[in-house]
Write a structure and sequence with these properties.
This protein folds into 3 domains: 205 residues; 195 residues, P-loop containing nucleotide triphosphate hydrolases (Rossmann fold), CATH 3.40.50; 192 residues, P-loop containing nucleotide triphosphate hydrolases (Rossmann fold, 3-Layer(aba) Sandwich). The protein contains 22 helices and 24 strands. It has a 7-stranded parallel β-sheet with strand order 20-21-19-22-23-18-24, sandwiched between helices. The protein starts with 14 loop residues before the first strand and ends with a strand.
Length: 629
């Protein structure tokens, strides 16, 4: 029987993600985690905030609960049945005891899943990184680190885990390191599960400490967005659910107008119709964004990641070479050659020759191409050869983001030769950007981009009050730019306001790997982990791009080139170059990545360009930083 508590204390409680959304989590709660959540939500007083699987700088504890007047508690929940296998602990000299299990005569380590080691790590990082203002010594009393096994007796748990708890000093103050099992959970005995639950005040906690830690606990925008179906207006939906008579369609649109949403939704719709689909991009990193969007298409099959082929163009070319047993020729064209010539000319020519002579090459019912302004007509021609007769070809583009100078290749004659007729279908309304950021991006385009390539987004005329936007321009006149970038990233937390800003939402973009690597290193020295693409080894950087996605629990850091097509509510952008046509398009791309959010969007630009200084002064918050060395 549970405690005879009659009052449901869940009313008005902060729960992140919201309790109604728990069924839609990418990593659903286990049965044990759901039981523990129900106990916390029903019996803890409403002042206790509950954070479920928070993105804690790359760590993912099961629960963090927080009371601004009392303290913080982190819990690891294990659904293990200790009777199902033989479990044991081996004590080791100078090392934590090793947790192991044995099944069918085979022993294997469970040390990576050792809950004692996990909560020990969580507590130390909360103290050292996420609450750096907690006082040494006494500050640890504000942090409870608990372990819960909902389906194991407490005698079993004590017998198994006591050596681990003793090694970490957790038996000296059991109230701050509670170990609870089946009996306590069945009876909802919070005095055993979380002894500090009755405390009403603490001498070491204050509002600033709570702000410090809350930024690490708030659910990231990317995770919340992923549970929502994509929303398309009537015009966008028409492109998703129809095709032209010829099967060829080209769509161009301003930044944030939904080009990529249409492409990803069209891919999902075609899959629903049991069509084979190839989606091709220029950037490796954009594929993750498109896959995330396709999964959210209402009425989709749910098989979009598995059954649609998602490749960037040059990876697709390499696959064609290997599948057709011409890997030696593929490697040969790279020897003693200009890489740009290989990518632009020789590789597409090789693939075209392979496909022209292939007897049983794979064909697709539809080939959809994003970032069309970065493609060359010859690349498009190669892709046409794998589209079945009567199939569908879609090209979406924004010439304003022509950072590689390829858009000029698409002359009217080239377009006719590529299978297109008539005018471009156009999208003008930007649904992504908050009003103020859209206005500054339009102003930038008018001043620095050529009129022939200018496709400025038009406002969706949403209510400005619902989209707070914080714009800051930093003109760097010194040499310590990496430190300036690091300082601006850290400064976001103080500007985020009472709603909180998830650290995992912060995205740092720059125009070179070298400055990016320096910034990531500085953040790392402060305990802030990043997922980035700045490795100087090109092959390793490529692997990093494949693993780059917004759902990662860490700060995101990549080049402006690699972030084309993406979006984030919190951006710090560094531009170290003086203005050229290419760098202007690159910075414009960065400015238009900002996503509106009900709790506010944040864009900070750090620039060294003297030509941009006057433009920067038009931003609401402008500062100039001199050399501090």
């Amino acid at each position: 029987m549970r405690q005879p508590l009659t009052k449901d204390c869940s009313a008005m409680r902060i729960v992140s993600p919201p309790a109604n959304d728990l069924a839609g989590l990418r990593q659903p709660l286990t049965r044990g985690e759901q039981i523990v959540f129900d106990v916390f939500n029903q019996y803890l007083s409403p002042e206790w905030e509950i954070y479920i699987q928070p993105h804690l700088n790359g760590l993912r504890p099961d629960f963090v609960i927080l009371n601004p007047d009392v303290g913080i508690a982190v819990f690891e929940v294990k659904d293990w049945n200790l009777s199902a296998m033989h479990y044991g602990v081996d004590e080791r000299e100078g090392k934590p005891p090793l947790l192991w299990a044995e099944k069918d005569g085979t022993r294997f380590s469970l040390q990576k899943e050792n809950p004692v080691e996990k909560v020990h790590l969580y507590r130390n990082e909360i103290f050292e990184i996420y609450c750096p203002r907690l006082k040494q010594g006494a500050g640890f009393a504000a942090i409870t680190a608990g372990i819960i096994f909902p389906f194991c007796s407490e005698n079993q748990l004590q017998t198994l885990l006591t050596p681990c708890l003793e090694y970490r000093g957790m038996t000296r103050h059991p109230a701050y390191s509670p170990l609870s099992g089946l009996e306590s959970i069945t009876n909802a005995d919070l005095s055993r599960i979380f002894p500090e639950f009755r405390r009403r005040a603490s001498l070491v906690m204050n509002e600033n400490l709570i702000k410090d830690v809350r930024n690490w606990l708030v659910e990231p925008d990317a995770a919340a967005t992923q549970r929502l179906s994509i929303e398309l207006d009537k015009s966008q939906m028409t492109f998703v659910t129809s095709r032209t008579q010829s099967g060829y369609r080209r769509i161009r649109g301003a930044a944030g107008s939904g080009k990529s949403l249409i492409l990803a939704a069209r891919a999902a719709e075609l899959l629903r119709q049991n069509k084979s689909v190839l989606v091709v991009t220029f950037n490796i990193t954009l594929l993750h964004y498109l896959m995330d969007v396709a999964v959210r298409y209402p009425g989709g099959s749910g098989r979009t990641r598995r059954d649609i082929t998602w490749l960037n163009f040059h990876a697709w070319c390499r696959r064609i070479c290997i599948d057709n047993d011409v890997e030696a020729e593929y490697k040969g064209i790279w020897k003693n050659a200009n890489p740009q010539d290989v990518l632009n000319v020789e590789l597409p020519a090789l693939v075209s020759s392979i496909l022209a002579n292939a007897v049983d090459g794979e064909l697709y019912d539809a080939v959809l191409v994003d970032e069309g302004q970065d493609f060359l007509p010859a690349w498009w021609d190669v892709l046409r050869s794998v589209c079945r007769p009567g199939g569908e070809m879609l090209l979406v583009a924004d010439e304003t983001q022509d950072i590689y100078g390829n858009a000029s290749s698409w002359t009217d004659e080239a377009m006719k030769g590529a299978g297109f007729a008539g005018k471009w279908a156009e999208l003008e309304v930007s649904y992504r950007m908050p009003e103020l950021a859209l206005d500054k991006a339009a102003s930038f385009a008018a001043r620095y981009l050529p009129a022939s390539a200018r496709l400025v987004p038009r406002s969706a005329q949403m209510v400005v009050a619902l989209e707070p936007c914080y714009l800051r321009w930093v003109h760097s006149a010194g040499f310590d730019d990496a430190q300036i970038c690091c300082d601006e990233i850290l400064g976001l937390f103080s500007r985020a306001g009472s709603e909180g800003l998830s650290v995992a939402d912060i995205t740092f973009l720059c125009d070179s790997k070298s400055i990016g690597y320096d910034v990531v290193s500085l953040l790392g020295m402060k305990g802030l982990r990043c997922v980035h693409t700045f490795d100087m080894d090109e092959q390793e950087s490529r692997r990093q791009k494949v693993g780059f996605y917004m759902g990662d629990a860490r700060i995101k850091a990549t080049t402006l080139h690699s972030f084309k097509g993406w979006e984030s509510r919190t951006l710090v952008v560094y531009m170290g170059r003086e203005l050229t046509p290419g760098s202007s398009a690159l910075l414009y791309t960065g400015l238009t990545r900002l996503k509106r959010h009900v709790n506010g969007s944040f864009l900070t630009v750090i620039s060294r360009s003297s030509e941009l200084k006057e433009y920067g002064k038009s931003w609401p918050d402008f500062v100039e930083i001199q050399d501090r060395l």
